[in-house]
Amino acid sequence: MSKNAQNNKKAAKTAISPTRAEDYAQWYQQVVRASDMAELSGVRGCMVIKAWGYGAWELMQRELDRRFRETGHENYYFPLFIPLSYFQREADHVAGFAKEMAIVTHHRLTIKDGVLVPDGELEEPLAIRPTSETVIGESMSKWVQSYRDLPILLNQWANVVRWEMRPRILLRTAEFLWQEGHTAHETYEEAMKETRLMLDVYGKFAEEHLAVPVIKGEKIAQERFPGAVNTFCIEAMMQDGRALQAGTSHYLGQNFAKACNIQFQSRQGNLEYVHTTSWGASTRLLGAIVMTHADDDGMRMPPRIASHQIIIVPILRDDTQSGEVMAYCESLRAELAACSYGDQPIRVKLDARDIAGGDKRWDWIKKGAPIILEVGPRDIQGGQVCVMRRDKMSAGKRFMARSEFVQTAANELEEVQQTLFNEALALREARSVNDIHDWAAFEAYFKKDADNSFVSGQGFVRAKWCGEADSLAKLDPLGVTVRCVPFDQSGTTGVCVLTGKPATQDVIFARAY
Amino acid sequence: MSKNAQNNKKAAKTAISPTRAEDYAQWYQQVVRASDMAELSGVRGCMVIKAWGYGAWELMQRELDRRFRETGHENYYFPLFIPLSYFQREADHVAGFAKEMAIVTHHRLTIKDGVLVPDGELEEPLAIRPTSETVIGESMSKWVQSYRDLPILLNQWANVVRWEMRPRILLRTAEFLWQEGHTAHETYEEAMKETRLMLDVYGKFAEEHLAVPVIKGEKIAQERFPGAVNTFCIEAMMQDGRALQAGTSHYLGQNFAKACNIQFQSRQGNLEYVHTTSWGASTRLLGAIVMTHADDDGMRMPPRIASHQIIIVPILRDDTQSGEVMAYCESLRAELAACSYGDQPIRVKLDARDIAGGDKRWDWIKKGAPIILEVGPRDIQGGQVCVMRRDKMSAGKRFMARSEFVQTAANELEEVQQTLFNEALALREARSVNDIHDWAAFEAYFKKDADNSFVSGQGFVRAKWCGEADSLAKLDPLGVTVRCVPFDQSGTTGVCVLTGKPATQDVIFARAY
Fold it and tell me: What is the ipTM of this complex?
């Protein structure tokens, strides 16, 4: 490294090292660690979600739950264990999940030569649920007799296990938390309406609450949920241009109804199979918000899901004044907590830990608290607060009259929320192309940089695809997949970017998490 | 059965059969089923918690969570899996749980002769958590270096598995939901203060929120949590006089700190082990409220945990008027939903299902909705509502002016809450004795009726116990245990009811769930 480069590096010192440009994958790990959202545990592939990450998940839950209730769903809880005989009923489903299931085979431990070993072998092994279609189907088959028992609209908040060979914190872990909605309907039309409705719920939630712009579309046959007839998804773009599936909604047809024998007497008096749907979103979203919003100084938490939206850091330079400063900060905290942002009280925290003010500030920068206030003796005298907005770190600190800040606090928070959304949207637009029409250009685009696409500018290619399954093999060496067939089709006819054949369907190609 | 008895039986027809007096255990199963709170699943020992039961659990969670936050705790999430090597670190802990653990030994399935079989054997088997002291201790050992990192005050909402040989729905199932608090402190005093504080939280919650009166006390050594130094508990009395442990709080001493190596540099500069606590309450509480409040017509849900506190049943006798009735009911619903009970909006539901009004009424009686309103054309004309309170079924229906009911709805709900508490307290007082001083009287009391203690009037015996472990064997044939050493000790000296030796300690003896 030249002397100059060294100096530049020093000048641009960041809280997170490496930076996104230096090593995106490592940067991600470091942000998760530095923000104290989660960490890998000693249990293979499993994580510990810490207070700052779990708090964001709880706020996501609260909002999703509100939207699920608003659309008529109720929460249930079903068993963690699925007997293998249930699982075997739907062939595609088994094929899709068999390779990554945790299996319980024993029901006690015994000590042998001083070591604990499994004992009490089960007659039928039990899978830990990777998803609950089959165990919920079993219940539905008992609950449904007539069309009067339909629709069934339920949701479950639960943990699931998919044995990941290459875990990545928050994004891909052996155990993760999620919600899974499961519904049963009389007709195709009703079930499809539900499937699309829930995709809309996810789409609005992602954009309005997580500040993550998404593209809504349908998965191609090869990317469907195992056992589904149609899979719809919302796809987001991470800062390295890769796609992340942020929620899916499946129309399952009568596949699971037949597998689980969910039949009902129709209005016409016939015995028919119900049409089912399922839809889910998971703690993967915590990974998505890190990869969407974090910068080289750490996380930037969207206000709507920040457990603490405003942090007050008392600046105590002199013991004689610390009582006065703390009292002022506490009264400011109470005043802000009495204000509302959206339909909820502002979540404000006074950081009273016994460490230096500067250390506190950097803690909250790395965690990504939307607004940090610093209050020292001089600010009290001047009746002001020193405001730092996490979305505008480069703008530095602003001094505002205390009363003015209190009045505009909710607006400031909403501005942070909007800035995060706008920046993510601008990034996606900058890294989306729709002028690639042939394989040579397509290959050149994705070959630019397979390792560090944060720098390359690669992202989403919107192009025509003829729909031939065989043609997808060309994508494998590039690590690219069809992310979805977006709902907003152009309706034009062109040529397939993979085969050169005539094609009308627009699809999104990208590398993905 | 004589003709007279038959007639009497008919006259006293109840919605639940058998009644409590006829067969208490069966009555319990039937109430859970008829109230639609939960049902056993096809998965051995596991249950499905349905909307009405899960809704009550969510309201319990909300209130407990509020109280946990108020006392400084934050939510985390830890892995479902515990490596056997973690578990083995605390000998008493292993001994206490080894016989009832689900063990994962494989991580995929493969098809062999057309049947799914476990494949991909794990190097180290994983236990499904029956409780998380060891896996959380592993994390704490990494987080704690100095006294500045203490206290750690965390809680987790999770599912746990204890392989029950004789499952009983809601009360004892292989998988159940719970919260487990885990804290680490510098000193014995702090940890003990926390342990007692959380017991108080449970006690207040049970009485104020679940309307379940409880006795607070300490478990004797033989009944402690495996690995604990002290276990404190709240004990409730069910309607058959049996005790049910409704929450526990453990001072774990330095046992788990040593097992998991959680050391810190003290204020004096020494390397010391932290003092830890843990405390938990589970979906078992759903069983407790059924056994405390239900009657021979079904569940009686305490208003504070009822997903729907007031049900509006439209009475539609004539198609021409049904539009008018539904509109009136909807406006009444909206008016009530705008009122508050406690600090929350009243939860009111208009039951618009396409079935007869009488069927709806009985559905909600069996579910135990606190207040049911019926509204038909004549009520609209008279500007009135027909009110039925679930706690006063025998009082029948009351007609009230609509405006008067709306004004007093919150009071009515609070009266239901108080009635349920008062009845449970009265039952406990009626079935508690403190005048048994020798073994003969003790044995006679509990021998009266071992099978149907709903009728016998048996309950809690408060008597002296000398503390000799050997003496407890006398209790085994009676199926009685020492429930706790209640905090409110009389301070008198007497004779041990088991040995006749001098004794000062008051304990509560009872049969228990």
Answer: 0.95
